[in-house]
């Protein structure tokens, strides 16, 4: 089924649930288990804390407010970013305290944000998924701005500047081992419900720039037909190794990843989606997300389907169908990443000015048994809900509570 017919199918399915007033009348159903998550981003103080250097009581109050907002919205999981830039929101022996807490990387904030988040989330019946960014070191290229004890300063050969940022080199086995050790320290210390990676593996392409991993490729890439295959193998190894170590350390914890929503366009690969996206994770980020699902390497995947139904280059309806087909028969659960941040943003297409757009996504997803829930980006927008899009989702779909899938 191509893009045109997929859109026709979506519109037909939605039209059967449209009232005379034009509102989507969604019949409530009993849902025993369904992911209803929200991302809480800490990088650049995106969602929390509202700014660096706040008093401890204020930081704690803001964090708890996000948890309480999630409960009021009948959500059941919080995906909390605890390692935004090769740093930590817990007392880590591997990496410095995050600058987003105090304004100075390495400065002790005087409390334990991750420990508090786990305890307070569980007290409210929320799951806490610890969200890690594996390879991003800094949103600048000056190593001297990092804490003096930062591993990137102790091992400058591990670091690649690219696109105005610093990254650990995924092609170095010692880097892959270190970032796992640093992340899994949190899993040992706290009863987190899941380990969560976002969409950053090799960095997003920057025109006119080259990610300089020549030395690592010369040393480790000889068995591969080309650099791209070697890079994908590096990321595959990170995923497989992390999954195995999570299970050894905390068997009940799950491992999930939220990649960019397009694996490959059909114009590149007949197995790809009927899209014309400018980024393809397989080719550009060297993340073979389809294989991770089909092989069952991860417990859940949350593709970031951050487009509206009918968007020409990447139609939500087309990508929902594609991911459902990928997940069919796999042990990997499929959740859908939702762009709540676009709702009411005047810079976005007209569809995002309609408070019902996101509710339509959830209605359409019910046509696919593989779709086991949704995660919303992000916490600040759940709290602000500028045009009532989240309130519409709650009214249409979340009138009754649900537990997260296991």
TrEMBL record:
It comes from Streptomyces cellulosae. SUPFAM superfamilies: (Trans)glycosidases (SSF51445). Residues 1-25 form the signal peptide. This is Glycoside hydrolase family 10 protein. Residues 34-348 form the Glycosyl hydrolase-like domain. GO terms for molecular function: hydrolase activity. The keyword tRNA processing does not apply. Keywords: Hydrolase, Signal. The keyword Kinase does not apply. The lineage of its organism: Bacteria, Bacillati, Actinomycetota, Actinomycetes, Kitasatosporales.
């Amino acid at each position: 089924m191509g893009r045109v017919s997929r859109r026709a199918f979506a519109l037909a399915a939605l039209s059967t649930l449209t009232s005379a007033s034009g509102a989507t009348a969604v019949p409530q159903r009993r849902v025993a288990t369904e992911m209803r998550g929200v991302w809480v981003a800490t990088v650049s103080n995106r969602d929390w804390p509202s700014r660096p250097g706040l008093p401890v009581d204020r930081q704690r109050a803001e964090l708890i407010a996000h948890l309480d907002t999630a409960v009021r919205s009948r959500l059941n999981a919080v995906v909390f970013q605890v390692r935004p830039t090769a740093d930590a929101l817990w007392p880590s022996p591997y990496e410095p305290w995050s600058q987003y807490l105090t304004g100075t990387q390495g400065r002790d904030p005087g409390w334990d944000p991750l420990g508090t988040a786990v305890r307070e989330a569980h007290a409210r019946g929320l799951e806490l998924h610890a969200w890690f960014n594996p390879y991003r070191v800094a949103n600048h290229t000056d190593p001297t701005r990092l804490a003096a004890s930062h591993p990137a300063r102790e091992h400058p050969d591990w670091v690649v500047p690219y696109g105005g940022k610093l990254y650990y080199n995924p092609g170095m086995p010692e880097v892959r081992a270190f970032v796992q050790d640093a992340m899994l320290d949190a899993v040992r210390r706290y009863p987190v419900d899941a380990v969560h990676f976002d969409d950053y593996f090799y960095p997003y392409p920057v025109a006119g720039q080259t990610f300089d991993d020549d030395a690592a490729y010369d040393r480790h890439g000889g068995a591969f037909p080309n650099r791209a295959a070697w890079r994908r193998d590096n990321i595959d190894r990170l995923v497989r190794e992390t999954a195995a170590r999570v299970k050894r350390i905390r068997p009940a914890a799950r491992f999930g990843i939220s990649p960019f929503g397009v694996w490959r366009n059909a114009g590149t690969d007949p197995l790809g989606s009927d899209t014309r996206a400018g980024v393809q994770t397989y080719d550009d980020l060297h993340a073979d997300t389809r294989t991770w699902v089909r092989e069952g390497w991860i417990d859940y995947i949350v593709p970031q389907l951050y487009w509206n139904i009918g968007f020409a280059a990447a139609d939500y309806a087309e990508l929902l169908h594609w991911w459902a087909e990928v997940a069919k028969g796999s042990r990997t659960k499929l959740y859908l990443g939702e762009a709540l941040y676009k709702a009411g943003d005047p810079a976005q297409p007209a569809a995002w000015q309609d408070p019902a757009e996101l509710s339509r996504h959830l209605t359409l997803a019910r046509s696919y048994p593989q779709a086991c829930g949704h995660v919303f980006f992000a916490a600040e927008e759940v709290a602000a809900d500028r045009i009532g899009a989240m309130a519409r989702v709650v009214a249409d779909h979340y009138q009754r509570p649900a537990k997260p899938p296991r």
